[in-house]
Write a structure and sequence with these properties.
This protein has helices spanning 25-42, 52-106, 111-121, 152-170, 207-211, 215-221, and strands at 129-131, 142-146, 185-191. With 238 residues, the chain is mainly alpha-helical.
């Protein structure tokens, strides 16, 4: 909009700028449009003798209040959206933990070790993910948030359980069993902001990560020295 070409808007198409500053050039022009129309309709009513400048200033003061309410609503909408997204991520994490634990119980050769690993990690030890279009329709891709504190052998066990779950869904045939399929997760360079699970066997923690922690953090972790092997049985190695 160029002020040389006239007012920013008309009475019939009246618009104000709530994104910019209350006294932006657009809003000052709109205030004059409002003031002129107000005076045309109300001048002289109930003894009013107002000037164009007075009404314009009053309108610009009102714009400040309108802009504040508008910004507050934007923040509220964003907070609600983020809250829903967090709940969806938390639910996916719970489903991931339950699915892996259920799968661990299905294979007797590895059941004891697999169940112990999943239960030790708990739900908080599962990797979170972020959707590329959280809350929208359509097929989404979920990017795994890397837990830099978790050792690669432990992560390998979890990935193996994910593969075994798909094997169970096909039941050794080309016909898949009924039920919702796990959402598609792919690795990413993004790291999880969650705290590491405390009290795990020391080889559950990434060696480099653990070695870089100070004494205070290590005391808080309370890593346990005892642990069984994290080697995956050869028949389950791809």
């Amino acid at each position: 909009w160029d002020s040389k070409h006239g007012p920013c808007c008309t009475v019939e198409d009246f618009r104000i700028d709530l994104e910019g500053l209350p006294r932006s050039e657009w809003n000052k022009s709109a205030a004059l449009v409002f003031a002129a129309e107000y005076l045309r309709r109300h001048q002289g009513h109930q003894g009013e003798h107002l000037t164009l400048e007075y009404v314009s200033e009053a309108w610009l003061t009102h714009v400040i209040a309108l802009r504040t309410r508008y910004k507050d609503k934007q923040r509220d909408d964003l907070d609600r959206k983020e809250h829903k997204a967090r709940n969806r991520r938390r639910q996916r994490k719970h489903e991931l933990y339950s699915r892996r634990l259920q799968t661990a119980y299905e294979y007797k050769e590895i059941k004891d070790r697999a169940v112990a690993i999943v239960e030790s990690l708990g739900q908080d030890g599962m990797s979170s993910d972020e959707s590329d279009h959280e809350g929208h329709c359509g097929e989404a891709t979920y990017y795994i948030l890397d837990k830099d504190w978790r050792s690669k052998p432990v992560t390998s066990w979890l990935r193996m359980l994910d593969s075994l779950h798909l094997r169970l869904r096909y039941n050794g045939k080309w016909q898949a069993t009924a039920g919702a399929w796990p959402h598609f997760r792919t690795p990413s360079l993004n790291e999880s902001k969650g705290s590491p699970v405390q009290g795990l066997p020391i080889d559950f923690y990434c060696r480099n990560w653990y070695g870089a922690q100070n004494t205070f953090v290590k005391e808080q972790l309370q890593a346990q020295n005892q642990s069984g092997t994290l080697a995956i049985p050869s028949q389950y190695v791809k």
